[in-house]
Amino acid sequence: MQQPGTRGDAKGGLPGGWRLEPATLDDLETLVRFNRAIARETEGLELDEATVRAGLHAMLTDPARGVYLVVRDEHGVPAGQISITTEWSDWRNGWFWWIQSVYVRPDARGRGVYGALHREVEARARARGDVVGLRLYVAHDNRVAQAVYDAMGMAPAHYRMYERTFGRPAS
Fold first, then answer.
1. What pLDDT band is residue 89 in, cutting at 50, 70 and 90?
2. What are the chain's domains?
């Protein structure tokens, strides 16, 4: 799997003392809380905490699965997150980066956190030269998120997403 790689921080309009950087295993418990909050807020789902923890641990220890970026507030506490996974496109002979697991703490919303994360992802993608675009999925009724993505220059795709889930893999 193609890996998103690293670049320097992109302050990009964040409040003073806030910084954007890769997540580490030290962020695991915060990311577990954030991911469970995403599911609760956007889909009314209560995710199994142990499963989320195991999935995050796998991703944080194996960059081939994807990467997480976080914005830290002036106290070094994560205020927001984004993850990037990849998909090879044989039609375009390049990578699509999937933006996933977007979350900003309620007290940090409206302060430029998502904008900074999005701009950093786009800058990293463009810098590689082999990334042909960014993709994400958003719930049909999540109008707030859709407006944010529109403002970041993204547009609805003509594809409809289908899925068939198989439950959790054996541990």
1. very high
2. 19-151 (3.40.630.30)
Q: Is the pLDDT of residue 72 over 80?
A: yes
Phi-psi domain of 77 (left: phi exceeds 0; alpha: psi -120 through 50; beta: other): beta
Nearest to 42 by CA among 143, 112, 117: 143
- CB of 14 closer than 8 Å to CB of 20: yes
Q: Looking at the predicted structure, is the pLDDT value of residue 7 above 70?
A: no
pTM of the model: 0.88
Q: According to DSSP H, which parts of the chain are helical?
A: 28-43, 49-61, 113-128, 143-151
Q: Which helix (H) or strand (E) holds 98?
A: strand 94-104
Q: Which amino acid is at 144?
A: V
* CA count, 13 A, side-chain hemisphere, 57: 7
